[in-house]
Amino acid sequence: MLVPKKGLGVQVPSRTRFYRYAPTVAPDNHTPLDRALSLIADVPNYPKSGILFKDITPLLADGPGFALVIDEFARFIRGLNRDIDAIVGIESRGFILGGAIAKALEIGFVTVRKPGKLPRDVYRKEYALEYGFDALEIHKDLLEPTDNVVIVDDVLATGGTALACHDLVSLTGAKIVAHLFMLEIEFLQGRKILRDTHSDVAIISLLKA
Ligand code: AMP
Q: Is residue 93 lining ligand 1, measured as CB closer than 6 Å?
């Protein structure tokens, strides 16, 4: 709810929801960013037995926390000291983060989608899943070989999705400068697969779990 405040238009209230969910970060977190990231909820055995799902929706629902995370991503990207032309977001949570980051930096946003969602000519990249295959697509005409881009997703797990997205974006000729994640599941070693394949790319995660 928006609270009217005299002389200042409206003020957006802080909605703090600490620890209604199992927090990813220890409760004695130190900074406002730690507090925000602690809103990511651990959901055991979802979507199937043995998976610990990292649910970012409580963080997204917290206005100040969401803003802090986007500011932090924008700060990292500015710190790269490169002319970044666009943010590429991976369907679907990468859209929420990537769109907000692109707005913060006033640069373009390009969607990478699951097959069959984009209406015009696409590049397509298939990649292996635990069981079977999936694919990602990107419109052919949105990026150019002179573009520098940053790829954004919510979670880095095995790295298969990020790697497929990297290879897909490479088909446009654009240069991938960095991969950004809100959270990295370290034991799955996604960073290693990305680093081993593309040693020159920056890999940034706000939180390691
Ligand atoms: P991967 O390709 O294994 O690195 O998986 C990354 C993609 O799957 C991202 O788009 C995530 O949104 C999703 N994902 C994988 N594992 C998890 C998890 N434990 N919690 C939440 N999302 C996950």
A: yes
pLDDT of residue 8: 43
The helix or strand, by DSSP H or E, that contains position 88, with its residue range, turns out to be strand 86-90
Q: Ligand 1 in contact with 156 (CB < 6 A)? A: yes
Instruction: Give which of 194, 92, 104 is closest to 152, Cα–Cα.
Output: 92
Residue to substitute in 129, 133, 155, 203 for testing ligand 1 pocket (most ligand atoms within 8 angstroms of CB) = 155
Considering the chain, what is the average pLDDT of its residues?
90
Residue 5: what pLDDT?
42
pTM equals 0.89
The CB density around residue 88, as the number of other CB atoms within 10 Å, is 29
Q: Is the CB of 184 under 6 A from ligand 1?
A: no
- For tokens 């697969």, name the residue: 193
Q: Which whole number is the average pLDDT over 132-155? A: 97
With beta carbons less than 8 A apart as the criterion, state whether 87 and 105 touch: yes
